[in-house]
Amino acid sequence: xxxxxxxxxxxxxxxxxxxxxxxxxxxxxxxxxxxxxxxxxxxxxxxxxxxxxxxxxxxxxxxxxxxxxxxxxxxxxxxxxxxxxxxxxxxxxxxxxxxxxxxxxxxxxxxxxxxxxxxxxxxxxxxxxxxxxxxxxxxxxxx
Length: 143
Fold this sequence. Notes:
about 140 residues; mainly alpha; about 70% helix
């Protein structure tokens, strides 16, 4: 469990640094608006996994629903409603404009997290002897 927390800590840190670099230095029409949205869902997933490394099998779905909720708040212009329209940090964290393409990007990021969770992490944590992937008599033939 401690190894998983450490793994997710490094993933979270790496994704945070990438997101920060994108926010500070990239002003294009592909990486910042699309790749950034994919990575932010992966960041949220890894952050939660750092705290709760096992269980919550539907975490990618929950992260997607959370991202959709934030996007819906952008549609409602929530940042203006609560009086933070001039706050640069709030504008970066919550966002200011609704986009259906953002929701697609969030979905893609969550699908990547689900694939990672179900196939990579699950494959690394399987006990090959317990689950029958390897027999104790690897060299013998069935009789």
